[in-house]
Amino acid sequence: MPKPLGLDKANRAAVILLAGPLLFLLCFFYVPLIQTLWMSFWEHGVFTFSNYARALSSALYLNAFVWTFELAFFTTILTLVVGYPVAYVMATSGPRLRLFILICIIMPFWTSALVRTFAWVAILGREGIVNSSLMYLSIVSHPVPLVFNRIGVFIGTVHVMLPYMVLCLYSSMHSIDRSLVRAAETLGAGRTRSFFLIYVPQTAPGIISGCLLVFIVSLGFFVTPAVLGGNQSPSVVVLVEQHMGVLLNWPMAATLSSLLLAATLLLFAIFNRYVRAGHAAPDVQGTEGARLYALIARLDKGSRAVRRLLAHVLPKPLPRRGRTGSSRFKLTTLIATLIAVLTAFPILLIVLVAFFPSPSNAIRLGNFSLRWFALYFERDEWVRATLTSFQVAFLTAVLASTIAHATALGLRRLSPAVRTALVSINLTPMIVPAVAYGVSAYFAADEVQNPLGDADKWNRRAMAG
To answer: How far is it, in rounded angstroms, from Cα 229 to Cα 231?
Structure first.
């Protein structure tokens, strides 16, 4: 006698476990995104493509898209360059240094992006620590503009995204067998060539996952570009906020969000097609390492010709003494430790400023005060806001853990093909820019609170002017 619905006991358990998480994802993620896409085609109650025509023909919007992707791209490159030595030292150092670097790297997670951003304003501002130090040392005669421009935005975004890159790289580095590098050195390869040709290709999964995560998250930045960048070069996220909160042009906000989402999905599809990132199998990850090895080997082959040419043109350098592998590792450790300390410095600065009457008096120990703490506990609204934040965080953690646990238990009971498809569906929120989902969630919440009953309501609440 056939089993009901053709499901065995394991599959029925998987369906029961996955029904709730998939329904939650459908109702609170996919449906709001579809609603946002649908809203972008309406203006004054008429179905039209005019919003997309304006967005793709206006220099303001096009420049905003270029700047948004430029910011995400260079932030990814800079975090990879800065974060790689930090992750390498964490994977190869002792437990004490590893713990110290880890604490410094994850410390920015303990505060909100807004607090970290204003910390950089205090550091890079006209009267901040950097400019005050430069002028005190007579290096510059007037303050250097480091905020309210693209320099400040890059510094702020790299600081925010560096922990993500370091943790992704470290996850692939800590299990690498370093005896392979030593074996290559004993066979005649130099320390540098052994590192780039043997060690770096094995970290390809961490490089790919870190770059993908940093790039996608950087596309949805709002606080950092808005505060550190000013209004000189607004990003797409800033324009979306202006259309929603100031201009009340919801269809255009939905259009910009939809275009950013479409561009992100297109780049992700191309990236996944040629790099095979994501939840890859071990053999695919080996292919990624082989491709990275082939690229580095070609670069090394080309650089050898350049080195031979320079050897005939330039005078022979003096013999280097004392440049042992140990000294190079100590230099790398020093650089990584300095980067880790600088990552934690803005957070420590915020804590320091809290004990002084004003930021400008922070270095004067005689002005130590608990004034701000006393004021905080005297204001009921601040205490209530803090308690609300903890309640939201706790409920979010419980709900996310419950959904993730049920999803994981259900996926392990399915066949590989079905599991791969469902994993892709569950990981889709990770490749959607935060602003796209934020706009969708806002529209969905407004729809629940103020259900639309007719076209007039739709036009008054969702359409511009």
So the answer is: 6
Q: Please, where are the H alpha helices in 281-353?
A: 282-313, 325-353
Pairing of strands 42-43, 46-47: antiparallel
Mean pLDDT computed over every residue of the chain: 77
- Burial letters 26-40, b for 16+ CB under 10 A, else e: eeebeebbebbbebb
Tell me which H or E stretch contains 43: strand 42-43
Whether residue 292 has pLDDT greater than 70? no
- CATH architecture assigned to 48-309+321-369: Orthogonal Bundle (1.10)
User: What is the dihedral angle through the alpha carbons of 429, 432, 434, 435, rounded to the nearest 10 degrees?
Assistant: -140
The per-residue DSSP string of 192-218 comes to: HHHIIIIIHHHTHHHHHHHHHHHHHHH
Compute the distance between CA of residue 266 and CA of residue 261 in angstroms, rounded to an integer.
9
Q: How far apart are CA 434 and CA 442, in angstroms?
A: 12
Cross-strand pairs, 47:
42
Which residues lie closer than 8 Å to 324 by C-beta, 6 or more apart?
A: none
Strand (E) or helix (H) holding 47:
strand 46-47
Residue spans of the domains in the chain: they are 1-39+370-431, 48-309+321-369
**Which residue type occupies 138?**
S
If you search the block for the tokens 């095979």, which residue do you land on? Answer: 276
More confident residue, 183 or 170: 170
Q: Is the pLDDT of residue 12 over 80?
A: no
Question: Quick one: which of 40, 68, 66, 44 has its CA closest to 54?
Answer: 40
Question: Which band of pLDDT confidence, cut at 50, 70 and 90, is reported for residue 355?
Answer: confident
What is the number of alpha carbons within 13 Å of residue 359 lying toward its C-beta?
17
State pTM to two decimals.
0.78
Residue 262: how many other CB atoms lie within 10 Å = 12
Q: Taking phi first (over 0 means left), then psi (-120 to 50 degrees means alpha), and beta for anything else, what does residue 138 get?
A: left
H runs (alpha helix) in 110-249: 113-124, 129-136, 150-173, 179-186, 191-194, 200-202, 204-219, 223-229, 236-245
d(CA 195, CA 185): 9
